[in-house]
Structures are given as structure tokens and as C-alpha cells.
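Supplementary Note 3. Input sequence used for the single-chain structure prediction.
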Amino acid sequence: MYYIEDEEFGKVRVGIRAGMRNITMRWKGETLYMNAPRGVSEPQLRSTLESFRVKLRASRDKNIVSYHIGQVIQCYGLTLTIEEQTKRPDFILFKHTSDNVKVLVPKGRDLDDSHNKLWVSKALRSAIDGHAHEKLIPLAQEVSKRVGVAPLRFEIGRGLRKLGHCTPGKVIQLSANLLFLPEELIELTICHELAHLTHMNHSPQFHALVDTYLMGREKQLEKKLKAFNWPVLR
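The predicted structure, written as C-alpha cells, is reproduced below.
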């Protein structure tokens, strides 16, 4: 991996991947990553970057995350609060009280710093891990009962970009990070995976079934999910 310097996006990380045909780009936190086939020149990379600049800028701006002391993040059935602590200057600590979790960062840390921002983001994801099973599984079972189909079982995973998965063995895996979403968007993911029990594809028949499960709201909820501002880096 190497990087190219861009006036607007800073250091753009470039990875060369054998077998690739096209250049791909995605944000990881506040860093832009490009993957390219072997033999692609720097001018070609810069030309591709320029052609997608407007879309990349919009994607970056939509996913900008910021943190501050006293910040309250409402999750599904859970409230996260960022506070300071002086006991452990090199650690982020947690204090769990019922459905409230205090995420305690060392006092004096600059939360606008990219390293600290990533640190807090990872801590927020860790904070919800222990609550995911008790919050998501009952909801998934309720939705499953409502639509009249059931997997072999539900499991909890940790995917951030892939929020759900239905295995060929009819096991549905739901990401703990769904807790950051409002209930209606969690149900969108659950219904999407439940529909895969009938259609293991994304055919028109599949989407029609998802839409039926969601009482005609699939497109509306998909649009909301795409526009959702995540409180963690993705």
C-alpha cells in the first residue's frame, strides 16, 4: 500500500489488488481508500478520483462523525453518554447502569483528533456489544412471528457495513451495530433477512416480499437507512 496526496482529501491510501478490473474507492473513517488493479498509473488514479470527487465529497460529509464531552447518543433501548474520567489516562472506561452506559474518556483528550475519534468510535461499538442479544433477539422474534416465518435461530454478529446475513442453513445473523438505528430501520434489516428464507437472492419477488413484510414501506425505509447519520465511524 502507498498513498497519493490530494489537496482536498489529504493522504489517499492506495492498495493494489490482483484480479481487480476496476478502481474502487471508499471512506474508512476520515481516510479515503482506493483499490486498483495492477498496472494502474498514478495519473489514472488521479483522473478517477477527480471524476468521482463530487460524490466522494458528499459521501464523506454525510458520514462525518464528531464527539464531545456530555454528548448523549440514543440507541435502540439504550442510552450512551460520553463523559470524562481521571482514573486511567490511557484507557476508555465503561459504567453500565440498567439501560444507560457511560463511556468515560480520559480527561483533556482532543476528541476532534482523528486518532481519538477512532478510539471513541470503537469504544461506543464495544459499549453496545453486551446489550445486543437482549435487545435485538426479542425484537427479531417478534417481527418473525408477525410476518409468519422463522429462521432456525437468530445470532448476533459485529458487522458494521453488513448489518445482517441469512446463511444457507437458515440462520439469521444480526449485527450488534443495529442498536445505533431507530426501531423501524432495525425492522427493515430483520425483514430483509427473513425474506431470504424464501428467496436467497435480490429478485423482484424478493423485494416484493420484503415490501409486504414492511406493509409497503421498503423503499421509504431503504432511503432513510441510506441517509442515516451513524454516530460511529464506518
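Helices lie at 42-51, 53-62, 114-147, 183-195, 204-213, 218-227. The first strand starts at residue 2 and ends at 6.
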